[in-house]
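[Automated response] Your request has been received and processed.

Submitted sequence:
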Amino acid sequence: QVQLVESGGRLVQAGGSLRLSCVASGDSFSMYAGAWFRQVPGKEREFVAAIDWNGGSTAYADSVKGRFTISRDNRKNTVYLQMNSLEPDDTAVYLCAAGSIWVKVTTTDPYDYWGQGTQVTVSS
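Generated structure:
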């Protein structure tokens, strides 16, 4: 019912910035919480950030607090991830997710829909 497409991933230098976008289509996205996860080969999918339906509540992984900012524009059915002070350890495939309830948002359990991911590579 909801399709998510990420974009904006590319090669960047350590210390640089990047903005990822997740565009939703199909069902109304304004009723869903949005989130970003990232995944590296050989590691579990890692929570990055989440935002509730109207942007009033956010959650961040400790590893990205102070560096990353999640936001959304429901008029554009889009969730963003602003990434600053990037480090090589941030290199991963970043995936967008959407869920209908704001509970246990740092796990994969609440999310009903997932995008295919966009590659972010940070050079040292």
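Summary generated for your ticket: The chain is about 0% helix and 50% strand. Residues 19 and 82 are 4 Å apart (CA to CA).
If you did not submit this request, please reply to this message.
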